[in-house]
Amino acid sequence: MVTDPGQRSAIGEVYRRAFRAYAAAGGTNAERYADDPARQATQLRVGASAAWLGEHMGEVPVLVIACRRIAKLSAGSQADVWGSLLPAAWSYMLAARARRLGTAWTTLHLDHEAEVAALLGLPEDIRQGVLIPTAYYTGETFKAAPRQPLDTVLHLDRW
């Protein structure tokens, strides 16, 4: 958990660079949904929110970076490695929401994982899995996001 203003600011600068590269590469791809105006509108809102966070990450009061000790990261061990960290991070986000705290799941900083590790003084065998900015929600639009119908994203027995 990072609460020190200087550390947050430094991580925010790294994140800003990562976000700008992401945006330059196409970002949320809102144009991909040109044939679905409702979904495109959602993607545009997501993009605007992500852009704001990209510029203001260092100002968020708490940055949670979920980490895991990993001696060697190999392709065949991904589920074993991240299978406990990712659900724990998600549970943290649910607990934060229940307390009217806003969070976001992002991994863009991992493009510069070594730089963030150096800022935090992480040992070489500690790997970052997710960055979760956390703050009190101050707006009035805290609501569930629109979701695709389940039968369009879940397949049983075969595609």
UniProtKB/TrEMBL annotation:
Coiled-coil segments: none
Taxonomy, superkingdom: Bacteria
InterPro entries: Nitroreductase, Nitroreductase-like
GO molecular function: oxidoreductase activity
Any single Pfam family the record assigns to this protein: Nitroreductase
Nitroreductase domain boundaries: 21-127
Protein's recorded name: Oxidoreductase
